[in-house]
From TrEMBL:
Pfam families linked to this entry: NPHP3_N
Nephrocystin 3-like N-terminal domain segment(s): 403-579
Organism: Colletotrichum zoysiae
Keywords from the UniProt entry: Repeat
Keyword match Repeat: yes
Domain of life from the UniProt record: Eukaryota
Full protein name: Nephrocystin 3-like N-terminal domain-containing protein
Length: 617
């Protein structure tokens, strides 16, 4: 017969547990002894003072050399701008806190509101700018911005505040704006204002300090680029709106991509440290201490959330390594061969088996629409042999290198966020460099999709137009087949669509209508769960530019895919459209910062292609 537990004993256990939980929340403000340094020993049932670890004092100044140089460069640009505008010299002592930044953005927005009301491209800009920077300044004032991680004795905050204020002043004084400029300024608060919980805890981590230095430097370089924009254009145009400076837009877009990469690396390191710390805390709990059950459960939940974030970051980091860094030995071999010959180079969770259903299944859909599962793998294999010595045409390795190192290509692949890119390869003829890189990306995405994952489901869909150039002999050379192939790949690679949704697609689908096919693709894509990352790569679009009818149909397919991206469904969408030369007929579908235009003549790898090695990322 089981023993009865007295009510008094139950109440005592509950009281002990509540004390443990309460003490765990103490922060030392009531008394220094009642803080996070006090821990509960479940075995001895006593409170102990945790022995403080002797931190390894870092010499931080050398870690921030990059930031100090970037600060000096920014101040140089600021002074040039002030001289050109005949403004008084800069007094950094007036920018000792973020209040001045808030005042600057308010003044600029007031001056721009009338202009914004007359321009649909500027609609909502001033409101977003105010909201973003107000939150940024508030968090900066409470030590939640990444700059709080930087040692105060380096005095890097004032120059950053001053740079932001001068940019706002330029907007206010000239009334000049350009889509690339205001979008860059608008994005800065979102990128920089998400560091709460990372600061002060890990102030002795050298890697994190180096990443903070890189982030600071990239922000300074971006502000300097914006001011250079004003100096080069504002006084030449002499009007309230800039002309379209595509080169400046591209350079500013690249700078913003570098800021995003630096912020991503900083946060990834901080999340790694946080996950490591939480794991250590979790392991320190005594397994037989029922008094700590609730606290342990809370920590486990936190660890679960952190594990989800870490795994998603690991997936994207793995893509960077396997897609682009895998090119490193290949490019190095090319360099070695060039040196030897002494010749110049040529310029989710994992998908699970669906439960048996009585209605439409993915296999039925694929079979009825004659899906060829080998189409894309075969095209990829054909393109990946372009690097072989016996390839019919030499591969432009300089162009491969330029794509591999382009910051906006890196952000498209490695940031855990939706992104859209049109990449114009810039070649004066159809060449294999862009398609080789696209094939490399798709090849590794297909491999990634086969790996089991608890928190992320990678779905790659792709099409290589230049492998089907003759629409009269190859049925896949029609834009309708491009759209149908993407639809069927989605059905094949995500087997968890509800059978009723598949049936709706079949009922409404007209295989001969681009509009109908794209509507079905949109219908299914909007039903993907949040843990899905849908990679869509369409390469060789310039092969579908002639005749005019095929060009128009291609534009319809791409236009509908871009509209799907703009609708921002629950899944993460990463769409990449690639042409070897340039697809001008598609460019109006994209925003300025979404277009990458490589030059016709790209720089040699590492400068002198015969003497220098390939620089790693």
């Amino acid at each position: 017969m089981p023993k009865k537990i007295s009510a008094a004993r139950v109440n005592m256990a509950m009281a002990e547990h509540e004390v443990v939980e309460y003490m765990g929340q103490m922060d030392g403000t009531i008394h220094p002894a009642l803080g996070p340094g006090t821990v509960y020993d479940g075995q001895s049932r006593t409170w102990l003072q945790r022995q403080p670890e002797s931190p390894l004092e870092l010499d931080l100044a050398p870690l921030y050399e990059e930031s100090l140089q970037a600060k000096d460069d920014l101040m140089s640009v600021v002074n040039k701008y002030l001289i050109k505008t005949k403004s008084p010299p800069l007094d950094l002592s007036t920018f000792d806190d973020w209040t001045t930044v808030r005042q600057g953005v308010d003044q600029a927005c007031t001056a721009l509101e009338k202009a914004a009301s007359r321009d649909k491209d500027m609609s909502g800009f001033t409101g977003k700018l105010k909201k973003g920077f107000h939150a940024l300044c508030q968090n900066a004032g409470t030590g939640k911005l990444f700059t709080a991680f930087i040692p105060a004795d380096l005095m890097l905050t004032s120059p950053l505040c001053a740079g932001l204020n001068i940019v706002f002043n330029a907007l206010e004084q000239t009334g000049i704006y350009r889509q690339a400029v205001y979008k860059a300024i608008e994005q800065l608060p979102e990128i920089l204002d998400n560091f709460e919980g990372y600061l002060e805890i890990y102030d002795q981590d050298e890697k994190l300090h180096r990443m903070a230095a890189r982030l600071y430097a990239e922000v300074c370089l971006t502000l300097g680029e914006i001011l250079q924009w004003f100096m080069k254009n504002a006084f030449v145009v002499g009007a309230s709106r800039l002309l379209t400076p595509s080169r400046s837009s591209a350079k500013l877009g690249d700078r913003m991509a570098e800021v995003k990469l630096a912020a991503k690396n900083f946060k990834a390191r901080a999340v790694f440290l946080m996950h490591k710390r939480q794991s250590e805390i979790q392991q320190s709990f005594t397994s037989n201490s029922h008094d700590q059950f609730r606290t342990r459960r809370q920590v486990e939940e936190l660890c679960h959330l952190l594990q989800r974030q870490v795994e998603r970051q690991d997936v994207f980091q793995d893509m960077q390594i396997k897609v682009f860094e895998s090119l490193q030995p290949f490019l190095q071999q090319v360099m070695t061969r060039l040196i030897t010959e002494n010749t110049d180079p040529v310029a989710t969770t994992a998908s699970t088996t669906p439960e048996p259903v009585s209605e439409t299944t993915p296999d039925e859909v694929l079979e009825s629409l004659l899906y060829d599962s080998d189409l894309i793998p075969t095209d990829v294999d054909r393109l990946l042999i372009l690097d072989q010595p016996r390839s019919p045409a030499p591969l432009d390795m300089n162009r491969v290198f330029s794509i591999r190192n382009h910051p906006r290509v890196k952000t498209w692949l490695t940031l855990d966020e939706s992104s859209l890119v049109l990449l114009n390869g810039g070649a004066d003829r159809l060449c294999g460099a862009t398609s080789f890189v696209s094939a490399r990306i798709v090849h590794h995405l297909l491999q990634q999709a086969r790996k089991p994952s608890q928190f992320i489901c990678t779905i790659p869909v792709a099409f290589f137009c230049n492998q089907h150039p003759d629409y009269r002999r190859d049925v896949m050379g029609n834009p309708s087949e491009l759209a149908m192939s993407l639809l069927l790949q989605l059905v094949d690679r995500f087997r968890e669509f509800d059978s009723s949704n598949l049936q709706k697609c079949m009922d409404k689908l007209d295989p001969n209508s681009i509009s109908s096919i794209c509507k079905s693709l949109r219908f299914l894509a909007k039903r993907l769960p949040p843990n899905v990352v849908l990679f869509l790569v369409v390469d060789g679009l310039d092969s579908f530019a002639i005749p005019t009818e095929r060009q128009d149909q291609t534009r319809e397919v791409v236009g509908r895919l871009v509209r799907l991206y703009r609708e921002q469904p629950r899944a993460t969408l990463k769409f990449l459209f690639v042409s070897a030369s340039r697809c001008a007929f598609l460019e109006e579908l994209f925003e300025e910062e979404e277009i990458i235009n490589l030059p016709t003549v790209v720089p040699h790898m590492g400068g002198d292609p015969r003497l220098e090695g390939v620089a790693p990322w």
